[in-house]
TrEMBL record:
Any single GO CC term annotated in Swiss-Prot or TrEMBL for this entry: plasma membrane
InterPro entries for the chain: CBS_dom (IPR000644), CBS_dom_sf (IPR046342), FAD-bd_PCMH-like_sf (IPR036318), FAD-bd_PCMH_sub2 (IPR016169), Ion_transp-like_CBS (IPR044751), Transptr-assoc_dom (IPR005170)
Region (Disordered): 1-28
Coiled-coil annotated spans: none
PANTHER family (alphabetical): HEMOLYSIN-RELATED, MAGNESIUM AND COBALT EFFLUX PROTEIN CORC
Top-level taxon of the source organism: Bacteria
Species for this entry: Pelagovum pacificum
Family: Belongs to the UPF0053 family. Hemolysin C subfamily.
Name listed for the protein in its UniProt record: HlyC/CorC family transporter
CDD domains: CBS_pair_CorC_HlyC_assoc
Gene3D superfamilies, alphabetized: 3.30.465.10, CBS-domain
Domain CBS intervals: 77-139, 144-204
One GO MF term attached to the UniProt entry: flavin adenine dinucleotide binding
Keyword check for Ligase: no
Length: 299
């Protein structure tokens, strides 16, 4: 069993030893999904750069049922800074405004800070019990609270999906090792890893994560997944030796790593492979929007 396990790990990395590759025992002992993963796994051969850039466009993220086992909650959760939540002290007007402005149908409810959640409020429950016309009984958000799930960032998507189905709770808060809130994930986030983006009428603006101003110039949200932006522009931005790909998930995260601090509005951050990032919207804690200028090669 040890030889089989070692051979599978080497094959998944795309660089098996000659002895294990020629062994019929290793081939016959592999399962169906293992052979599929090996066929799709990229090799470890270095890709030559052209003008400092990869000659091969970055492929978009792979969708499918395998993601439920391969990915964890940490890979798909919304970071704490982007969570839309409501305090338990909110009155009816505040809750109506938050539902209208956000376009969401479920909101986590907290007491004091997001690190002390008390449940979630559902738009349907609120509308049925209190309505939107200002009439009805005295409002207390505690009377319409529903329970939340609390999960670690290391939980696999498949396990969480089963738990959501069993408990009939479609929202979970991601809790860090200290018991604080680290992020949020919904059942829609899980399903999108299998079938792709699920958009409704409220997702129109959110879907515009980036736009092209002119050839070689893009405007993008800092929270846009880096892999998606790379696929959109056909360029790999993490191949340089100074960049640790494992530590970056978003375009803003890449700029933060390159700058070494939270850059201010108007600051320009240079990429070692040529592109430059201009911060066009930010606050003291994070970057919000960027203008990316990519070298355009004349052919």
């Amino acid at each position: 069993m040890g030889d089989t396990t070692e051979g599978s790990q080497q094959a998944a990395q795309g660089a098996p030893d000659d002895d294990s590759a020629d062994s019929p025992d290793n081939t016959s002992g592999k399962g169906f999904f293992t052979r599929i993963f090996e066929a799709l796994a990229p090799g470890d051969e270095a890709t030559p750069l052209v003008n400092g850039l990869s000659p091969h466009p970055v492929a978009p993220p792979i969708l499918g049922m395998a993601n439920l086992r391969r990915l964890t909650v940490e890979d798909v959760s919304i970071p704490q800074a982007d969570i839309v939540a409501v305090p338990v002290t909110a009155d009816k007007d505040e809750l109506v405004k938050l539902f209208r402005d956000s376009g969401l149908t479920r909101l986590p409810v907290f007491e004091g800070t997001l690190d002390t959640p008390v449940g979630l409020v559902n738009l349907k429950d609120f509308a049925l019990k209190h309505g939107f016309n200002g009439n009805g009984h005295d409002f207390d958000i505690r009377t319409i609270l529903r329970p939340l799930l609390y999960v670690p960032p290391s939980m696999s998507l498949g396990v969480l999906l089963q738990k959501m189905q069993a408990d009939r709770i479609h929202m979970a808060l991601v809790i860090d090792e200290y018991g604080g809130t680290d992020g949020l994930v919904t059942i829609e986030d899980l399903l999108e890893q299998v079938v792709g983006d699920i958009e409704d009428e409220h997702d129109v603006e959110e879907a515009r994560m980036w736009s092209r101003e002119k050839p070689g110039v893009y405007v993008a949200r800092a929270k846009m997944p880096l892999e998606e932006f790379e696929a959109a522009i056909g360029m790999n931005l993490t191949e340089h030796e100074e960049i640790d790909e494992e530590e970056i998930d978003t375009l803003g995260g890449l700029v933060f790593m390159l700058a070494g601090h939270v850059p201010a509005r108007g600051e320009v951050v240079q990429h070692p492979m040529g592109p430059e990032f201009e911060v066009i919207e930010a606050d003291p804690r994070r970057i919000k929007r960027l203008r990316v200028r990519v070298p355009v090669t004349d052919e």
